[in-house]
Amino acid sequence: MNQKKNLLFLILLFISSLAQSQAPLALPQIVNYSYGQYKGGIQNWDVAQDQNGILYFGNNDGLLTFNGRFWNIHHLPNFTVVRSVKIDSKNRIFVGGQDEAGYFFPNANGVLTYHSLMNLIPEKERKFADIWNIVIRGDEVFFRSLSKILHFKDNRIRIYKPETQWEFLGTGNKEVYAQVKGRGLMIYKNGIWQPLYNPPELDHAEITSILPFRRDTLLVTTLKTGLFKMSSKALTPFVTEVDHLFHNDRIYCATQVNSEWYAFGSTSTGILIINKNGKMIQKYSYEEGLQKDNIRGLLIDQNKSLWVALDDGIDLIGINSAIKTVFPDKNKQATGYAINLFKDVLYVGTSNGLYASKVDPDQKDISLSKRAFYEVKNAKGQVWGLQEINGQLLMGHEDGIFLIEGVEARKITSSGTWLFQPISWVYPTKDILAGNYFGLLHLSFNGGKFENKGQLPGYTDSFRFLDFDAEENTAWVSHPNRGIYKLKIAPDYSRILNSRIYGKQDGLPSTLHNYLYRIKNRRVISTEKGLYEYDPKNDSFKPSSLFNGALKNVQIQYLKEDNQGNVWFVSNKRVGIVDFSQASASRPFTIIYLPELNEKVVGGFESVYPLNEENIFIGASKGAFHINYKKYKENTFKPNILLGVVKLFGKKDSILFGGYFMSGEQVTRQQNSKHVLQLSHEHNSLHFEYSSTLFEQQNNIEFSYQLAGFDKSWSEWSAKSEKDYTNLPPGNYTFKIKSRNNLGSESEASAYRFVIKPAWYRSIWAYLFYLMVAIVGIYLLFKWQKIKHKKAQEKLSYLHQLETDRNEKQIADLKNEKLEADMNFKNRELAAMTMHLVERGKVLARIKDVISTLVKKHDVPDNSQSFRHLLRLIRDVEKGDQDREQFTLHFNNVNDDFFGKLKDLFPDLTPNELKLCAYLKMNLSTKEIAQLMNITPKAVEVGRYRLRKKLQLATEVNLFDFLMDIANQK
Questions:
Q1: How high is the pLDDT of residue 138?
Q2: Which DSSP string corresponds to 432-480?
């Protein structure tokens, strides 16, 4: 019976091996780039890489470039397809198109610019269709079309025409080879194409590539007749185990992968990788993840990844990757939950059942074994665990416990089972506890067989996490929603004697989400707030001292210790390792995260199977991951950094820097300090793009930047690969950018310096002008202030004068009022005096008349002594001058020395005439004047006449007005 099973097992392996065409057990990362992503033509014909790591693809639409983050297309002048690409030591990217040959090279601003060589070709020779191959040797460049080979050297082109047609052009061991249809292989020597070989094998064989093989031997590939080894003596066939594929599916291109491996691109079978012994190593096709099986170009980049130019798209194969994916089922949909290597067979437990594949025991890295998965019989359904115990493989399944026997599984129990816990770690162990859907189950091992001893009564909870303490015969189990259980087991493992449940009250941060593991010989609980350990003295839990608190407050759902003492963990679907083989500056270990696996593990059912350092398996949402951790650490290429494009923000056709630093005619890695861009003030919003050419590790790369002169410090690390700055003030700036990988390795910083000039009104000359204007302004201001002060003083003086004048005027007015009052008083006094004199004259005249009448009436003689005396007194009074002098004095006081003015003007006036003038000025009547002067009215008229003559007045002049004018004279 066993012999039949073994025979069936071998037959299944053989059939599976044939069916899967010797594909590798685990596939590396394959990244697909469709034409919709790179925005170019569908077909890609060739691929090359420059010294900065930038990739160049010959594309239907032109030259396609890729720097890790950004794609760009550069068209030829005639907008034709680019069939071939090669790069020389000066970083000139030579391209061949349809009736076009030339090279791209950065201009002074680092922007790729095309330089056509067609002007060096005679006009009649410029029709040659496609350039299929380009070969560079030193300073010589060869372009091959079917009808011509163009030889470019010293800025001249020489043309070579074949007798029939050129079918191939290549190089090997520093020699240039070409194949002429029907004439065999030619070699270029001293400017001449000389025949080398013309064996019958090449009569109908078209060479597609020549590669180094061993010392002076070259490997020659042909389109449909397989491989040959070419030495200086002969061309001999190279037999491989896949010659049938080489003859049927055409070798279109090839490249050397490493010192032992070669990759061949076919037109319908994808990529075949063989070693120098002709043994098939790996195969990549549409089934393994390529977009197409029609391969046009291959390249091993600087980081040992394989780039594939396809008939439809571009693919990246991480053949040197330390992380690969195992797909046990054909549809690549099964979720991996458990992995185990048992008797050189790799078993993968999935959501769809158990799969197995024979591995090569001579391969240290199991992933390099041939993929030959088959489905184990009777194992259909959910697999939860796989564990080797006592030299046999047990499977925990949703349908119970199964023993794996070759190609089929034999059921032992019928209850869904999670895991197994041997009572003793010294095999063979007699007793095993199993955690299943209904608690704990006891298995015994007798006579090489496992027996079901039944469920332990007392608890029916589902136990996924289990650890057994043999010293106390105690089982520790955890339930994420109920807490930690401590179960005392009977010596015969038939029942639970007593139990205790630990929760928040016993030192745990929460009763929920606690997971039990044994790490570093300690019972460790992973919680919502980091790791906790059991403290037997206090019968409680406390924060773990493991890892020096490095994982404090980190939510961990899974822990697994490997054979080297490193601890693998999963935190919120992030996979990491506490690596004790690499000490950090402050700790005896290093914590490394694997971002390639982020969000790809099975949340809640994490599984890590650390077979050895080169074979770590992790369950995944699709299949399982294989990690060669030793290689992972060795493959830590130091990340580089490329500044891709600098352009004005929001402007079209405004590229300031195209991604290549130039120093004269050479491409350099740093900016030439003499070539610092000067930008006008309105061009102060810039867009920066940057990348790293660690193509395979793009998910691991982060960037940090700083704009010196604007940013105070470096930015936080981020996966973002572009940055905008808007409205920068004038100044000198340096944009610095660096990258790092998940292991903390940083690149050197790349710097781009530029200057934003101030506006003309903010230039140095403008500021000098402003300074001069300010000085003149200050001077004028000072002068204006002085003038203003002077005017203010003058105004104050004027106002003061006005005030003074006003006061003086007021004083004068007061004086005038006083004078006027005095004048009025004096006038009244003068008038009164005048009236007094007039009245006195009248009275005296009346008295005199009365006395005269009495004398006449009573006949009193005139000579009567009494009357005579009275009359004499009256006459004396009438003739008296005292009153007249008093009148003259008052008149002069009132009329401002009126008599003096008249005397000055008319010195001939007599006193009586002066007195007449005064009376006339007073506008007295003739009768009043006569009384005052004691003369007759007639005498007054005569006096007036005589006065006018002395005053020399014309008849029309009014005497009163004349006298008033004299009185008013100053």
A1: 93
A2: EEEEETTEEEEEEEETTEEEEEEEPTT--S---EEEEETTTTEEEEEET
Residue 194 pairs in a beta bridge with 187
Q: How far is CA 703 from the centre of its chain?
A: 10
CA distances from 377 to 17, 381, 405, 552 (A): 18, 11, 10, 45
Residues 6+ apart with CB under 8 A from 811: none
Comparing C-alpha atoms, which of 506, 451, 450, 454 is closest to residue 478? 506
Write out the H or E segment, with its range, that includes residue 116: strand 112-116
Separation between Cα atoms, residue 716 and residue 701, nearest integer Å: 13
For 344-365, b/e burial (b = at least 16 CB within 10 A) is ebbbbbbbbbbbbbbbeeeeeb
Contact in structure between 262 and 298 (CB atoms under 8 Å) = no
Three-state SS letters, 877-925: HHHCCHHHHHHHHHHHHHCCCHHHHHHHHCCCCCHHHHHHHHHHHCCCC
Q: Tell me the two tokens of residue 7.
A: 């025979």
923 vs 917: CA distance, rounded Å: 10
**Separation between Cα atoms, residue 616 and residue 629, nearest integer Å:** 7
Which of 98, 175, 166, 170 minimizes the C-alpha distance to 131?
A: 98
In the chain, % of residues over pLDDT 90? 58
Tokens of residue 680, six digits = 């006008």
Please name every residue paired with 498 in a beta bridge, in sequence order, or none if there are none: 488
Global pTM reads 0.76
905-939: pLDDT as tens digits: 888 888 888 888 887 877 778 887 787 777 888 88
